[in-house]
């Protein structure tokens, strides 16, 4: 090929660094060039590009396979992997330019204006590439583009596109770069980490000189502020680092936070690598080791994501979490799945990134912060700081480190001072605390003053979550309470919990503090009234802090957690009586939630059993508030009106029973009250019609439904014909659901057919009750929600009614129609939910309670109900509790003779049929 002086080909890459496998396996420039020369020697010009692309594509495929193989053998070797992909891409770009300029568009005597330099920018410029990272290129030209440079660039881009590379590109002069970089911080950032690849090196030198003189010579205040604002917007969009499906690149504590640090460091300190920040005094050596470990881990995770999906994937979805964990070698251990161990490591590294970038960025922010307006400084009332501290840029700082460390209780006092004053803690003070966690020893943990400070943090200042979150991030919380360490950054691998266990715990405490501050009185009237009436706050806050302390162990976390309370609570200085109460609350912290959501709270036996377990109104009050805070702390949308109605109903009935006696719970009393309420609601009805209505129902009907449902059924039953089918759909705003009432002649299997019809239109059944009248009609009530967990819009009710009618007429066969609906989403298939089926003959006076705990999917309730109907089982009501991908369907049933299922052989037969229905549905979901 002709020697083209306009290219001044640069043969070397960045300084040699270790690759994931030998360089010649990734790309052999001489061998590839030899193949290209040989292939193109006898071809016409129009055929040469296709031949060259074919050879380059094969070389790229071979190189990627070599890198992937090397990375699979060393799945944590992130840096050599990113360098290897950069090395491969560099050679692809160089070869593409050389071919375009020398073969496709030869120019033996280029003019001064026909020079071209190819510059890598962005992550590619930094020399860090994941398998499918973008290839961001700057084509640098001296003046306005010529026909030759336009042709070369176009041909080169077509070659790279033919190689399936995702290329971002721009063609600019040096002056363009300076002008656009000054106007746009995104462009300025890209130029900040540019790297020469090939072409005219003198032109690139001109760019470096101009950038340093005109763009990167200031103090960087505007650049820093732009990067900090960009970071804040990104965090707001992605959410906290505790969300269970994080974005490896963009989320808080992700790779982009590392990039922000690098950009600012490079601008301010003129460094080329983050390791140089130790010498600049920005990081301590041990801090940088932590930072580097997090960086390596996150890059490894991102690369595995790309390789497993064969595309640029950044979201660590549930299904990918399992695959990445396996690729990185995580195994099941100690009662925990390998994916959970992996995600705990992920969140701990994300926390480390957050801590270190906060130290770095906040220091810079303090240095370059803009002065407050004079009037704001004059009129702002600042709290007086206690001795031993000083205020630096509105943050609590430590003027004398030796004096501070001379009293180890100061490691707790500084958090109290931050709450008292409402100020943030200075990053240097946080570094000092984190570096001296060893001072928190057993003597300090048993020190009454340390205990007082800790409980003041929880009880005194009104926002304990702020102190707890910072203490947790710095390691103070898990050092003061060592048992907390196990749940730090622990992910629960399910779709129910939105946060890690430690963050969930802090969220529950934040909810309690908000209720105490009367911020949720309208939304949580019962919990608010309980706290207004007065409870033992120290007991309640401690119970919330410790309620999930035993998560991640093989044993039941409630039972094991209660045992742990026996040693933790006395160490915190709690009296024996308070310790006993906290132990009980931790042991039974799921009891009220389970009773309310998995049992029929209209059944007197449910309330009676719960009252016997709780025993006192004092315990009931504490457990009710704890339950509300716990459910609300699961995720931002977990608490809803449906759960609120259930919890309030169980609380009020149980409190009444504890105060007036359990005999008030008998069916006769409740039936009489219900009939009286119906007579008042239907006061305009003729007396004869009222007598007919109140006489046609059995006792369970009266105590199982609200008077509004009784009125709806009365209207449907009035003057009903022998073959009539009547339907009433009504929004139940108090429960965030639509109540669907059905009246028709009774016949076997009607419950399952109704369940099938509702599932076919996408309705989620959250509660269902079925009653038979004395004159042969069935009165079924279903509470349903749409896919978003809300009541159905009125516009959708006609279609719902139409589909139900079609199903009842036999025009839609439920089981066949479910084939399309039953499919489980790909991201949800990684969840393992074992099936448990239990029979309880003690929880209800007249029914056997069958509880089916299994994997949720569309049509499950229909399959289970149909299986029971085929077995001649009468379903009185069904209670559905959903926890992400897990569901607990509870059926209150009798046999065809109206008796309970006491026989173990009959129970085993029913269980076998239910499991078969679940398995058949699961098979449909996988196909």
What does this entry look like structurally?
With 927 residues, this protein is an alpha+beta fold. Among the domains are: 23-215, Beta Polymerase, domain 2 (2-Layer Sandwich); 221-368, Nucleotidyltransferases  domain 2 (Four Helix Bundle (Hemerythrin (Met), subunit A), Up-down Bundle); 666-796, no CATH class; 813-927, 2-Layer Sandwich (Alpha-Beta Plaits). Helices cover 56% and strands 10% of the residues. It contains 41 helices and 15 strands. The protein has an 8-stranded antiparallel β-sheet, with helices on both faces. A 4-stranded mixed β-sheet has the order 3-2-1-4. Strands 5-6-7 form a 3-stranded mixed β-sheet. A hairpin with a 4-residue loop joins β10 (764-772) and β11. The relative contact order is 0.05. Mean pLDDT is 88; it is low at 1-16 and 373-379.
Descriptors:
927 residues, alpha+beta, Beta Polymerase, domain 2, Four Helix Bundle (Hemerythrin (Met), subunit A), eight-stranded antiparallel β-sheet, four-stranded mixed β-sheet, 41 helices, disordered N terminus
Describe the structure in brief.
It is built from 41 helices and 15 strands. The protein has 927 residues and is α+β, with helices and mostly antiparallel strands.
SSE inventory with pairings:
Blueprint: H1 23-26, H2 29-40, H3 45-73, H4 78-104, E1 117-120, H5 122-126, E2 135-140, H6 147-162, E3 167-172, H7 174-183, H8 185-192, E4 195-199, H9 201-215, H10 221-238, H11 255-269, H12 276-279, H13 285-309, H14 318-327, H15 338-368, H16 374-379, E5 390-392, E6 395-397, H17 401-405, H18 410-421, E7 424-425, H19 427-435, H20 442-445, H21 448-459, H22 464-474, H23 476-480, H24 501-516, H25 525-533, H26 537-546, H27 557-571, H28 576-587, H29 591-598, H30 604-614, H31 617-632, H32 641-660, H33 667-681, H34 687-695, H35 699-704, H36 707-717, E8 726-732, E9 737-745, H37 750-760, E10 764-772, E11 777-785, H38 797-808, H39 814-821, E12 836-840, E13 848-855, H40 860-870, E14 874-883, E15 886-894, H41 904-926
Parallel strand pairs: 2-3, 6-7
Antiparallel strand pairs: 1-2, 1-4, 5-6, 8-9, 9-11, 10-11, 10-14, 12-13, 13-15, 14-15
Helix pairs in contact: 2-3, 3-4, 4-6, 4-13, 7-8, 7-9, 10-11, 10-15, 11-15, 13-14, 13-15, 14-15, 15-19, 18-21, 18-22, 22-24, 24-26, 24-31, 25-31, 26-28, 27-28, 29-32, 30-32, 31-32, 33-36, 37-38, 37-39, 37-40, 40-41
